[in-house]
Amino acid sequence: MHLRMHRRVIATALATMIATTGLSLLTDTAARAESGSGVISSVGPLTKIKTTHDLNCYVDHRADVRSEFFGGTGCATLIAVGGTTFGPGDVPSGPHDPGTLKYKKFTTVSQSQVTGAGTVANPYKVTTVVDAGTTKIRLTQVDTYVEGQDTYRTDIAVANRGLSSSSVILYRAGNCFLAGDDRGTGRVDSATGSVSCAAANGRTMQWQPLSAGSKYREGTPSSVWAAPVNRVAYANTCDCTTFADNAAGLSWSFSVGLGATVTKSLKLNFSPVEVQPLTTSKTADASTAEAGGTTGYTISVTNPNPFSLNLATIVDDLPAGFTYRPGSTSGVTTDDPVVTDGGRHLEWTVPVAVPASGVSQLHFGVNAPTLPGDYFNRAS
């Protein structure tokens, strides 16, 4: 038996809010209200995503009163090239506070209007182009967002317009202000190379690399900003157990050949709350049944979270010789499942929520095979 659930619980919450308050999704025209200024506006959950002309980043989440980065724009794309680091003109509490020259400012080239419809096929998009001084290195950053998601994507194309190959270190980092708190702990997902800031209430902000070769850093803001200032890559370190003012980011070290372009991509993922996985168990009506007789099973789905989670489908694979008894389903649904694979594979559509710290159950009946023996119906 397999269970699948929708992970984007917030998307369902969004649909509920629209239905009960009369709100409607922003149109493409509405999203362009701040056209040319690098601002994507939507009903969220990320209600505002802003990229400045010199590659600061700014995010508002519907769950918070204040922005997700310290000072609003305490997040940035930077690049070290030719013995110099380039970045935005100001990163609040960062490596380039006003009046403190610690690196050089990007030269702004252009920024597009917001385009797209906020859908998977046509996401909102902002394209920002900057030059790293006179190094002939040009960055073209594309930020995209699909409405209803807690994540947005950034693709940074590094082009070499000079006369020789160039070695660079590209950074994307931010001073976390998650859930209205400047303090938090860190987390690392070694399988993906992702690094996160985690708030005291369990919410997370995660930098997820989509391009290979990245390194991460989580720690105090000064430790995170020290790497671009000193033109060194992050070293895959995390002050994970320390609850303090924290920041996090990713870096990539690579060479860009003459006339070549190298693109590095990442996602910034926001978790409104930390979601623990649902657990499932399955029990038979009886430990034994008569050959050729009938019996049944109960599938229990337990939600350990202090909030409800939506189910999409419940799937069960019967042992050989067992068949589903039509009209026998009860519990979270009374509809019969879709039956395939010669009667063994059962799949129910379950458009219900498992209550907070609660259990939802589904019961169904089966016909036992005529051949006596031991049969196992595994749950996972």
What radius of gyration results from the CA coordinates?
A: 26 Å
> Largest sheet, if any?
9 strands, antiparallel
Main sheet: which strands, in order across?
A: 8-9-10-11-20-15-14-13-18
- Measure the end-to-end span: 6 Å
Outline type: elongated
What percentage of amino acids are in beta strands?
A: 35-45%
Indicate the percent of residues in helices.
under 10%
Number of helices in the DSSP assignment: 3
Explain the overall architecture:
With 380 residues, the protein is mainly β. The chain is built from three helices and 29 strands. The radius of gyration is 26 Å and the shape is elongated. The N terminus is likely disordered.
In short:
The protein is mainly beta. It has helices at 9-21, 28-31, 221-230, and strands at residues 2-5, 39-41, 46-51, 57-61, 75-81, 84-87, 104-105, 107-111, 124-131, 137-145, 151-160, 166-175, 183-189, 194-198, 204-209, 214-219, 237-238, 244-245, 247-256, 261-271, 279-284, 294-302, 309-317, 323-324, 330-331, 338-340, 345-349, 353-354, 359-367.
Fold topology:
Elements: E1 2-5, H1 9-21, H2 28-31, E2 39-41, E3 46-51, E4 57-61, E5 75-81, E6 84-87, E7 104-105, E8 107-111, E9 124-131, E10 137-145, E11 151-160, E12 166-175, E13 183-189, E14 194-198, E15 204-209, E16 214-219, H3 221-230, E17 237-238, E18 244-245, E19 247-256, E20 261-271, E21 279-284, E22 294-302, E23 309-317, E24 323-324, E25 330-331, E26 338-340, E27 345-349, E28 353-354, E29 359-367
Parallel strand pairs: 6-7, 16-17
Antiparallel strand pairs: 1-23, 2-3, 3-4, 5-6, 5-12, 8-9, 9-10, 10-11, 11-20, 12-19, 13-14, 13-18, 14-15, 15-20, 16-19, 21-22, 22-29, 23-27, 23-28, 24-29, 25-29, 26-27
